[in-house]
Design goal:
heterodimer; A: 136 residues; mainly alpha; 8 helices; B: 336 residues; mainly beta; Methylamine Dehydrogenase, Chain H; four-stranded antiparallel β-sheet; 28 strands; globular
């Protein structure tokens, strides 16, 4: 039986993985996540859990290479937070115009997306392909 | 038309439509993502599966045999209406990760269209929620010109070739191509049910126009589409507020979906006559048969049929218990 500590650690890893997935998606999907209100908590989870990576590593949930990648992604996101928050809320646009627009398609967020994809590939491992079978 | 193939999450049913729907489960086990009937040889039927490669039938879909095509996740199968070798049409398959394969010998051997791997935007393709599960979700082939090929990556765009796949151009269609259809008699009319929009083309898929006139702003997600074989302006489209309520992928989130009908220059109107309540039904899959005929296979597993161009639908009693509760991924009419 898992202890509460280990289940908490596994849950934090899961939240971290989901946050990285959202940052790794294509821009149109990310704009939809913004509209659903899911991108802000994803960013918050990345920043919060990204500050506790030692605990995840000590618990054997992630390895040193994964720690380095998540740290790189977290730093990349935080660098842009002060100047570029178009991923956090839908502003000054009708719902469709936002979805069809170009938010998150600038260079800083392209870099975030590519870093997140490297990070997700390393974190998801064999779990990743099943996502395509479950969702339609 | 009175025979349907319905690909479910756990196999394939051949369904005879009369006053009732009688299902015969002809393939059990893998999720069937796409079914294609060879228009030149209707006894030849292909079933693309997620996890078990490609299956073929040589008897009109009564029995299926596994082919040697072993790519595990095969999302779509399409047979060219105009390109054939001997008695059978050229078969195209789309896979995960994204690749396009072609067979000129009825699925015995395949050649990859390697130019797909060289498309510059490939590094941007991703299937939400994961970046390394993108796939070729749809392939559409021209009625008269074998050099015109369209394929759509979920999520990465719709690509058009006018030289048999030697070069590709990304189009302005919605980058999330859930459904691509070419009208069965009007070769240049192409339609897309995209993740965020309906789009159509009148030049064989080279250029596209977005049209959501008449659909409320809160409906921002679209999936299945079918076009009337007797009227290229009559298009049916399934929509939802978002993918999660539309596909019922999150148990605690209520389902919600609706169906819309597009008439030339009049925009879309919602179809309610004969369909289940919007808040009781996840998005289903559409197919078009004879002129004015549509079927809509909703989740979980109910069949609705229209013979008046989609203005109204009627339930077809469907006794196949095994089909209920399983996602209908693919619906195709058989000319047999």
């Amino acid at each position: 039986m898992m202890s509460s500590d280990s289940s908490d650690t596994a849950q934090r890893k899961q939240l971290l993985r989901l946050a990285i997935q959202k940052l790794a998606c294509a821009p149109q999907a990310q704009r939809r996540y913004v509209q659903m209100g899911w991108m802000r908590p994803a960013i918050e989870n990345l920043i919060r859990i990204g500050d506790e990576l030692d605990a995840l590593q000590n618990a054997g949930e992630i390895d040193a290479e994964q720690v380095a990648l998540v740290t790189e992604l977290r730093e990349e996101v935080m660098r842009h937070l002060d100047t570029n928050q178009d991923f956090l809320e839908e502003r000054d646009a009708a719902p469709r115009e936002f979805l069809f627009g170009h938010a998150l398609e600038n260079d800083p967020w392209n870099r975030v997306r590519h870093t997140a994809r490297r990070c997700h590939s390393r974190l998801a491992g064999a779990d990743a392909p099943s996502a395509a079978i479950i969702a339609r | 038309m009175n025979t349907l193939f319905i690909g479910y999450n756990d196999g394939l049913a051949r369904v005879k439509l009369t006053d009732v729907a009688e299902a015969q489960f002809v393939l059990q086990g893998p999720p069937v993502a796409s079914v294609a009937v060879d228009p030149h040889e209707p006894d030849l039927v292909y079933a693309a599966t997620l996890g078990a490669g490609l299956w073929r039938s040589h008897d009109g879909g009564a029995t299926f045999q596994k082919s040697d095509f072993e790519w595990p996740l095969t999302w779509c199968a399409t047979v060219s209406p105009c390109e054939r070798t001997g008695a059978t049409g050229a078969l195209y398959l789309g896979t995960q990760l994204s690749a396009v394969f072609k067979s000129n010998d009825a699925g015995k051997s395949f050649e990859e269209l390697t130019t797909v791997q060289q498309i510059p935007s490939r590094s941007e393709w991703s299937f939400p929620p994961a970046p390394n599960t993108h796939h070729v979700h749809q392939i559409a082939l021209h009625l008269e010109d074998p050099d015109v090929i369209l394929f759509g990556v979920e999520l990465g765009g719709v690509y058009h070739s006018s030289d048999g796949g030697r070069t590709w151009a990304q189009t302005s269609a919605d980058p999330d191509p859930h459904t691509l259809r070419i009208h069965p008699t009007q070769p240049n009319r192409v339609y897309e049910g995209g993740g965020a929009s309906y789009c159509d083309s009148r030049d064989g898929g080279a250029s596209w126009r977005r049209d959501l006139e008449g659909i409320p702003d809160e409906i921002r997600y679209f999936y299945s589409l079918a076009v009337d074989s007797g009227d290229p302006a009559n298009v049916l489209l399934s929509g939802s507020r978002d993918p999660f309520s539309g596909h019922a992928v999150i148990p605690e989130m209520p389902v919600w979906s609706s169906l819309y009908r597009h008439k030339l220059d009049l925009g879309f109107e919602e179809i309610t006559d004969g369909l289940p309540p919007r808040d009781e039904t996840a998005m289903g899959t559409l197919a078009a048969g004879d002129a004015g005929e549509f079927v809509y296979v909703t989740e979980p597993g109910d069949i609705y049929r229209s013979t008046d161009g989609g203005r109204s639908f009627a339930t077809v009693p469907y006794a196949a218990r095994a089909a209920r509760g399983s996602i209908a991924r693919a619906v195709s009419f058989s000319p047999r």
